[in-house]
Amino acid sequence: MIGKVCMVRTYSAGVFLGTLKSREGKEVLLTNARRMWYWDGAASLSQLATDGTSKPKTCKFPAAVSEVLLTEAIEIIPATEAAIASIAAVKVWKQ
Fold this sequence. Notes:
By secondary structure, this protein is of the alpha+beta class.
C-alpha cells in the first residue's frame, strides 16, 4: 500500500486520509494528510474509503497537513479515486 492514498484509523488520534509513505508495525507516516474529524453520508469508514461522502456540506474535515506520524494505526484502507475526489471537494472546516 506504500504510495497509495489510504484511510488510516488510529487508536486515539482519529481517522486520516493521506498518502502512505511508510509503515513499521503500528507506526504510519502519511503525507498530504487530512483528518476526518466528523463525517456524514457514509455508514462506515469502509464506505467512506470506497464511495466518499454523499453529504459533503455536513462533514468536518480540517485542512491537510504536509506530513503526520501516526503511532497507533489499527486499520488501513486504500481509498478509491471516487472517494478521494469526494473528500477533496469537502470545504475545509475551520473553527
